[in-house]
């Protein structure tokens, strides 16, 4: 039977995306489905393990004679070593093997989470602090390995067109549901288990849950191979657009990290809530983020031009949220629990606006500047994204814990908001200049084309 004739309109949609690719991308193969399950498992498990500490660990550490500054450093050291590890694993992803890196990272992360639950048996003071740092460092390295491999495998699993999976943001946004779900379940579950069973049980429960996912991923996760890339992180991050987006990622991550060592202590001291209820307060941020992320991913999929402005306005709204979180004393607004919850909900939505476009914006910029399409480039971009996020997650709690101790939560949160405001405005200015340069370049090309046409016309023999 003859194939039906396809018009040009059958191949392309209104936004220029091949229609055949779109139809194929809606039908997932078994390999793609297994990859999504694996990526979802690491997003869910890692975020639960990361967020479980917030409601009760700062208070528990204070009982062990640990200052707020050191508590912030314990949270921050995770991000520092995650930063270094992401750069390393992103560079050598192809040499190590994506599947091995993913599974090994997940296994070590589960074991480190269980070990962290045993630290309440350690003596107070320096011994407890040292062990906290050691276990968090191991957990950070394993987390970086799993997440870096996860991003790269996910994008590689859709060979027809990477854009339909990661560049358009819809699949990335959908997977952020599981990251958000981990952030949603972690604090209230951790607070409940801590309040009911004590310090050890939350970590043992989640650590065992992550370990149970290891054999599942060993069986279902596809194995990909690729040639090493000739490009480097330095070449990628020195691209102006990538550099500015990196600063945006750092500022957003710093905001999230700031809340870990400070918000629970502020709420406990201000409103005298139990650890279980503090976990529910964190729920507002995580739940709104997990719900809004796929919506913004879908929006950036349908209207790619909006990505840049979602990123800019998301940062500005985040800045306003942190000004009101205290609130900043110059506003003369009394701190209320309902206001904190409302601000956290709005912050979760604005974070979804800003975070979702970062990966596709960096990846498209890399391709436009000569980076080859393949697992190596995906590893570089994934490693860079993880590294910048980790740098912010190190600066946020470390600086936040120090500022909280010196000037109080209200001013510390305002300074954090000022950081995101500056990066948002700078990013907006860059996009405006980029748009203006593009218009100017198009005008110059049009003038050159008209001049060439006139020269050709003048060279033609005139009719007699």
Automatic annotation (TrEMBL):
Its main location: membrane. Residues 1-10 have a biased composition (Basic and acidic residues). Keywords: Membrane, Transmembrane, Transmembrane helix, Transport. The lineage of its organism: Eukaryota, Metazoa, Chordata, Craniata, Vertebrata. It holds the Pfam family MFS_1. SUPFAM superfamilies: MFS general substrate transporter. Residues 1-22 are annotated as: Disordered. This is Solute carrier family 18 member B1. InterPro entries: MFS, MFS_dom, MFS_trans_sf, MFS_Vesicular_Transporter. GO terms for cellular component: synaptic vesicle membrane. It comes from Sarcophilus harrisii. It comes from the Eukaryota. Residues 35-440 form the Major facilitator superfamily (MFS) profile domain.
């Amino acid at each position: 039977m003859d194939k039906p004739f396809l018009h040009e309109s059958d191949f392309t949609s209104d936004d220029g995306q091949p229609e055949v690719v779109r139809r194929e991308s809606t039908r997932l193969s078994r390999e793609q489905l297994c990859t999504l399950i694996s990526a979802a498992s690491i997003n869910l498990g890692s975020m639960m393990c990361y967020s479980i500490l917030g409601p009760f660990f700062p208070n528990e550490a204070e009982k062990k004679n640990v200052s707020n500054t050191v508590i912030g450093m314990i949270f921050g050291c995770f991000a520092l070593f995650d930063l270094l590890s992401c750069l390393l694993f992103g560079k050598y992803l192809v040499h190590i093997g994506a599947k091995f890196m993913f599974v090994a990272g997940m296994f070590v992360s589960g074991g480190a989470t269980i070990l962290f639950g045993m630290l309440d048996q350690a003596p107070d003071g320096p011994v407890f602090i040292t062990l906290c740092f050691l276990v968090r460092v191991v957990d950070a390295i394993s987390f970086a390995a799993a997440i870096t491999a996860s991003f790269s495998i996910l994008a590689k699993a859709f060979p027809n067109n990477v854009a339909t999976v990661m560049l358009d943001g819809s699949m990335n946004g959908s997977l952020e549901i599981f990251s958000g779900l981990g952030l949603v379940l972690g604090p209230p579950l951790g607070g409940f288990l801590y309040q009911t069973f004590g310090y050890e049980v939350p970590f043992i429960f989640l650590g065992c849950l992550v370990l149970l996912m290891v054999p599942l991923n060993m069986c279902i996760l596809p194995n990909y191979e690729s040639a090493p890339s000739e490009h480097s992180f330095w070449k990628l991050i020195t691209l102006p657009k990538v550099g500015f987006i990196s600063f945006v990622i750092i500022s957003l991550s710093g905001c999230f990290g700031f809340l870990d060592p400070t918000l629970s202590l502020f709420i406990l001291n201000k409103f005298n809530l139990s650890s279980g209820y503090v976990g529910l307060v964190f729920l507002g941020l995580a739940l709104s983020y997990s719900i809004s992320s796929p919506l913004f991913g879908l929006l950036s999929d349908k209207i790619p031009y909006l990505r840049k402005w979602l990123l800019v306005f998301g940062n500005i709204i985040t800045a306003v949220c942190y000004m009101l979180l205290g609130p900043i004393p110059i506003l003369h607004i009394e701190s209320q629990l309902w206001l904190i919850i409302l601000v956290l909900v709005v912050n979760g939505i604005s974070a979804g606006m800003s975070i979702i476009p970062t990966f596709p914006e960096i990846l498209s910029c890399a391709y436009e500047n000569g980076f080859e399409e393949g697992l190596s480039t995906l590893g570089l971009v994934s490693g860079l994204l993880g590294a910048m996020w980790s740098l912010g997650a190190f600066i946020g709690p470390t600086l936040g814990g120090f500022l909280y101790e010196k000037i109080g939560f209200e001013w510390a949160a305002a300074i954090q908001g000022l950081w995101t405001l500056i990066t948002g405005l700078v990013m907006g200015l860059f996009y405006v200049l980029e748009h203006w340069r593009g218009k100017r370049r198009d005008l110059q090309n049009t003038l050159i084309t008209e001049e060439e046409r006139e020269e050709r016309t003048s060279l033609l023999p005139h009719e007699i």
